[in-house]
Amino acid sequence: MLTGPVSVLVVGLDDAEVAALAREDGFAVRGVPVIEAPSGVDAVVIALDSDAPLEAVRRVRTLEPDAAVVVVTEADHRADGAVAMHAGVEDHLVRDELLGPLLPRSIRYAVATRRMRRELAASDEVTALPTLRGFAPIAEHHLRMADRAGQPVVFVFVRIEEHDSLQAALGREAADELARDAAGVVLNSVRDSDVPGRIAPDTFCILLTGEAEGAETTVLSRLVEAMAVHDARRDRPRALKLSVGTARYEPGTGLHLAELLEGAIRRLGRGGGA
Questions:
Q1: Residues 81 and 190 in one domain
Q2: Residues 266 and 136 reside in one and the same domain
Q3: Quick check: helix, strand or coil at residue 248?
């Protein structure tokens, strides 16, 4: 829950759009034509230049690394928003008649998500990845965005086949070492914009951001390659046995995150290794 006014830097929007946002309760708004220097705001709203959308996002992230970022594009440049989402911004809105009503809500969600990443993403002490407690709020936010944008969300699940049996036979330290190895494979597979987490002692989940189809293929291919590299290392005598699966959230289905995760984990438990 957000407390106190949310400071917002609005870059490249019309004066009327900036003024409309400033009239909303709970916002301290400043509009500028371009972002030139750090200002320590909670959120940046930026109208993307269609000539260089990725460069604009990188500049914002460089100058305001802790700020939530919402990008705005013209209706005929939705692809620029997809590029920005792939680069890790919190939300994308289209400049149409719904922009005014949606923008305050989008900013609040974006700031809450950004803060969750920093403050609530409890780290697993073994792998340093977010636990389910930190992963779930971020994933739930992406499901809400999927409903609004009409685009599916894909999750990749990775289960360590021998985690429980190894812990029973050799103890927790051996199981933790196996989990660290698996986490290394996961981290070598994800893109910068994806969100990995250790949602159970033997299971990792990767939230794929951006366009679902291409992201899913890319990450699955990288997983296979990273496993092969791990198993080829002479200082790792134990080959990894991982089950890999995916789950897709379809917009508008109303499926809860808990249902999606539970179903995917059950299917992994019945599947074979990757």
A1: no
A2: yes
A3: strand
The CATH code of the domain that includes 47 is 3.40.50.2300
Of the candidates 94, 120, 146, which is a domain's last residue?
A: 120
Annotate 192-228 with DSSP letters as a single string.
TT-EEEEEETTEEEEEE-S-HHHHHHHHHHHHHHHHH
User: Which amino acid makes up residue 2?
Assistant: L
pLDDT at 270: 57
Global model pTM greater than 0.85: no
CA distance 67 to 30: 14
User: What are the residue ranges in the chain where pLDDT is below 70?
Assistant: 1-3, 117-122, 212-213, 234-238, 270-274
Three-state SS across 168-194? Answer: HHHCHHHHHHHHHHHHHHHHCCCCCCC
pLDDT of residue 119: 57
Please indicate, yes or no, if residue 125 is contained in any of the structural domains.
Answer: no
Q: Please indicate, yes or no, if residue 1 is contained in any of the structural domains.
A: no
The pLDDT of residue 237: 61
> What pLDDT shows up at residue 274?
42
Q: What local confidence, expressed as pLDDT, does residue 111 receive? A: 92
Residue that finishes a domain, picked among 120, 141, 161: 120
- The domain in which residue 98 lies consists of 6-120
Give pLDDT, residue 72.
Answer: 96
H or E element that contains 165: helix 163-170
Residue pair 264/249 in contact by the 8 Å Cβ criterion: no
